[in-house]
Amino acid sequence: MVSTSNFGVKARYARGVIVFLYLFLLPHKTYSQPCSSSCGKISNITYPFRLKHDPDHCGNNLYELNCLNNVTVLKLYDAEYLVQSINYNNYTIRVVDPNIQPTNCSSLPHFFLYRNNFTQKDTNSYKYSFRRSNSTFDYSDRIDLSRPVIYLKCTSPPSNVVDKYYTDTTSCLDEHTYVIVGDPQLGILQPQCRVKLVTLTSFWVPPPSVFSINNIIGNVSYIDIHKALGYGFEISWMQASCRCDYCYLKDPTSEIQCYDFYCKTLVLC
C-alpha cells in the first residue's frame, strides 16, 4: 500500500519527468539531414528521432532513442520505456513499461506515471479538426491519447453503488487490490481505498472523429486491463513540430495546421 508519505518520493520522480519532457518536447526550428535507422521491430527511426550511435546529422539529440538487445528504448528521466511503434502520420510514439509481462497477469508496472507528469497537455492529447455532416465549417476538439489505470488497495470491497467501476484483481494479484480505468470523478473513490500505483494505457482511446469525455471504463476484466497495459501508451510530439504558436491535426489528411487565436468559437477560421 502506498501511504501519504510515499508520495513525496513519487512527486520527486514526477518533477524529474516534467523537467525532462520540457526539454524533450521543446519546439525546434532547425532541421537535420534525412536518414533512417532501425532497431528490432522499429524499422523506420527517422527525424526527429535518432539512435544513440547514429551519425551526428541524424535526427535531433533531444529525441534520442537507445537500442538495447535489439529493443528500442525511450528514456524519460530515470525511467526507460520500450518503444512499441512510432507513427509519423499522427506524431505519436507508443511505449510500454518494461516490467509488464504479457503472459503473466501478476506483473505490475515499475513506474508510477500520470498524465499530469507531462509538461504540456499536448504531450498526452492533441487538437483534431473534423467536419460535421451538412456543415461547411471545420470544428476542433481534443483527443486524449491515453487513460489512467489506477491500482487501489482497499480494506473492504467498494459499495454496490460504484463497484462496477472497480475491477477485482483476485485472479492475478490479491483480493484487496482493485483497478479503475479512467478519471474517477467525485464519489467514485471510496474512503477505505488508497492509491497504490498509477500508470497509463492508450488501448481504449477512441479513434479520430469519435469524441467523448475521458470517463471511467466499467465492467472490464483484469485480464483485459493487463492486456491494455501490454499495449502501452502514446506520447505526442506534434506541438514540438508546430511552426507557429499553436497547432492542430487536420482530419483526414493528418496535416499540422496553425490555429488562429483570433477565432473566438470552436469554428476554425
UniProtKB/TrEMBL annotation:
Name of the molecule in the record: Wall-associated receptor kinase galacturonan-binding protein
Keywords, sorted A to Z: Kinase, Receptor, Signal, Transferase
Bilayer topology term: Single-pass membrane protein
Main subcellular location of this protein, as a coarse class: membrane
Keyword Amino-acid biosynthesis annotated: no
Xref: Pfam families: GUB_WAK_bind
InterPro entries xrefs: WAK_GUB
One Gene Ontology CC term in the entry: membrane
Gene source species: Medicago truncatula (Barrel medic)
Domain Wall-associated receptor kinase galacturonan-binding: 35-97
GO molecular function, one term: polysaccharide binding
Compartments it resides in: Membrane
Superkingdom to which the source organism belongs: Eukaryota
Signal peptide: 1-32
